[in-house]
Amino acid sequence: MSQLSERPEKPVVGVAMPHESAVQHVTGTALYTDDLVQRTKDVLHAHPVQVMKARGRVTAVRTGAALAVPGVVRVLTGADVPGVNDAGMKHDEPLFPDEVMFHGHAVAWVLGETLEAARIGAAAVEVDLEELPSVITLQDAIAADSYHGARPVMTHGDVDAGFADSAHVFTGEFQFSGQEHFYLETHAALAQVDENGQVFIQSSTQHPSETQEIVAHVLGVPAHEVTVQCLRMGGGFGGKEMQPHGFAAVAALGAKLTGRPVRFRLNRTQDLTMSGKRHGFHATWRIGFDAEGRIQALDATLVADGGWSLDLSEPVLARALCHIDNTYWIPSARVAGRIAKTNTVSNTAFRGFGGPQGMLVIEDILGRCAPRLGLDPRELRERNFYRPGQGQTTPYGQPVTQPERITAAWQQVLDRAGFADREREIAAFNAAHPHTKRALAITGVKFGISFNLTAFNQGGALVLIYKDGSVLINHGGTEMGQGLHTKMLQVAATTLGIPLHKVRLAPTRTDKVPNTSATAASSGADLNGGAVKNACEQLRERLLRVAASQLGANASDVRIVEGVARTLGSDRELAWDDLVHTAYFQRVQLSAAGYYRTEGLHWDAKTFQGSPFKYFAIGAAATEVEVDGFTGAYRIRRVDIVHDVGDSLSPLIDIGQIEGGFVQGAGWLTLEDLRWDTGDGPNRGRLLTQAASTYKLPSFSEMPEEFNVTLLENATEEGAVFGSKAVGEPPLMLAFSVREALRQAAAAFGPKGTGVELASPATPEAVYWAIESARRAGSAGNGGARDAAASDGGRVGAGAKALSGA
């Protein structure tokens, strides 16, 4: 076992424990960025001047009326920027734009003594606009050839030969929606300037180092004059990886110009209408199978809706292409990607970061093709799994390690769920209930862990031991409720060999650990855990030498367990506090900077080949649903999940992440339906679903009536911190089983062998139209001879178009 993955005697990792801030969360004492305003004197409040047009050229901004509003202190415009007027890493996101690019785009910011004064002042700013043509929908962008960014193509094998050798070839088209992050805490920042003109920003950000970088270049100062701290976030899900930077820069600019603290916080409507979402996608595809239903070739084009600027659309698209295989061996593949440019908010990272979109395409293909091939969907999926000992690689050339875990997790779900018996029960129920149908579906997950950009796969930490034996750890990861800080406390205590209560964690800030990567890509525990472990190992080695001198032994024979240093084969011991005290008086350094870089990664973005991932996270889920034939309404009766987290660092945290990820994925696939005004009227481009009243989120009523989550056993991951695996993003894709169960339930309203297409999100309306198509297949008497085309009552581009077969 590698040193990184090896666990010592009586480790604190692996212990099921609650979130380190759980008590503060439930008692309301946990502080978030905007709570700090009440503890800060003379704060100014920022409010955006939004232009409610989809696109237009700004010809004038008149601020006089706003400055006359009582309580308004200043109006920030592009003329006030001393550095670079841009808030993006691609230099395509002007902080103060001279061209409005989406409905609600902010062109200026008003600072007021109160938020109400700032709001009234913002309403008084006059903006002259020359309206320009706009592109709102993904379909319109494709038709208008409106694209930006990279155009990757991933190729593997001989695609033409693969199709020539195929017994069955199908083609199809599929469009599916994005998703709103809807974190509980909206975007927020609080900026202050000290007596030396240095800027300190409290920000709700997943990427403090990049927030620091953007703020520095907007202000025209070096990075060491800007410090960013993230206390904690009330949710992030990727929405706070890139998008907080410009908001923090507005607060910092205001603080610099006024000399007073500036508070920035979006209300819910502003957050929904100004911040990016998960990318919606459009896919066209052609797939070939042999006579046994094994995939021979895939040719597909994926188009992501990037919105008005690039943001993270290029790496999101890259990850979508890299995950189109999911758990399936595709001998020959050609997959192209494009990014559509539309006049909507700039879409950004969201849990899974393009992986769910790519995987949804292949799962939809198999769900649609199974009836055409005369196969049960479960059987079709099983026949195409990656297999051990075959030397199989992904379409981008990375060997698939641990393919046996795909089958192991799958089989455990089948067994634990009593799959075969329940299928028989469901068949009997459906036969007896003409207007209500049930279905049971199983899908798997194979998700690559690491940033696609190799340089981001590094982490840092700073660990301090004080003379009394207490320990303070700093690391570069941010806490958004996912339990990263809890795991880091456990990693530090385990590595040092001390009880957990001896260790405290400090808020994440850029003047403690510099140049950190975003807490994203499910790599927070891997990168920061490796760095914390490295720092603690340095300290432990120093302390072992001190203990050895006190115990009269060799350092290699000393162990520190549960806060006591002991020599092998002896009853002599030295308490941790005494050991630290002795080390101080021997002038032994009691602080250490830790560092970790993920080894074994390489990626060529031009050829789209390499091994960008350290390992793959594996899982499987079986979902049973019941659907009402009159309304399309449904309920999730039971979910069974087996998921691979390696040797869990914190099992309670991991199970919570699996449950939460699954429910969020089910929300994306079944409920959350983003709609924009696509008409030519004055509100063209306006987000219509801009509140919880119109944008439906999963809640208790959508939770499975029975929810069983099991961690895959005997699953140590060599080369990862204490043998663990990432857990943040992979469980979201387990929710594919919900959508596939709904497809099968809708098809059950038609003759045996009927296949249906299902829009995404599969709202009750969409399910109803799928049911109607199945019924039409029955009334036409054609059974499963061809797919029943799904409709949604006239909504353009709601879902998939009909298959054609050869």
Structure in a nutshell:
29% of the residues lie in helices and 24% in strands. The protein has 806 residues and is an alpha+beta fold.
SSE diagram, text form:
Elements: H1 22-27, E1 44-51, E2 56-62, H2 64-67, E3 72-76, E4 99-100, E5 105-112, H3 115-124, E6 126-131, H4 138-143, E7 153-156, H5 159-164, E8 168-176, E9 188-193, E10 199-203, H6 208-219, E11 226-230, H7 244-258, E12 262-265, H8 268-274, E13 281-289, E14 295-307, H9 313-322, E15 332-341, H10 355-373, H11 377-383, H12 403-416, H13 419-432, E16 436-449, E17 458-465, E18 471-475, H14 484-496, E19 503-505, E20 508-509, H15 524-551, E21 558-561, E22 564-567, E23 573-575, H16 576-585, E24 591-597, E25 602-604, E26 609-611, E27 615-628, E28 634-643, H17 651-670, E29 706-711, H18 736-747, H19 764-780, E30 801-805
Helix pairs in contact: 6-7, 9-10, 14-15, 15-16, 18-19
Structural description of this entry:
The protein is of the alpha+beta class and 806 residues long. The protein has four domains: 33-134 and 181-274, Aldehyde oxidase/xanthine dehydrogenase, molybdopterin binding domain (Aldehyde Oxidoreductase, domain 4, 2-Layer Sandwich); 136-173 and 290-303 and 315-384, Aldehyde oxidase/xanthine dehydrogenase, molybdopterin binding domain (Aldehyde Oxidoreductase, domain 4), CATH 3.30.365; 399-443 and 613-677 and 684-781, Aldehyde Oxidoreductase, domain 4, CATH 3.30.365; 458-597, Aldehyde Oxidoreductase, domain 4 (2-Layer Sandwich). The protein contains 19 helices and 30 strands. Helix 6 links the parallel strand 10 (199-203) and strand 11. Helix 9 packs parallel to helix 10, helix 15 packs across helix 16 (576-585) and helix 18 runs parallel beside helix 19. It is globular and about 90 Å long. The model is unreliable at 782-802 (pLDDT under 50). It is an enzyme of class 1 (oxidoreductase). One of its GO terms (molecular function) is xanthine dehydrogenase activity. Residues 778-806 are annotated as: Disordered.
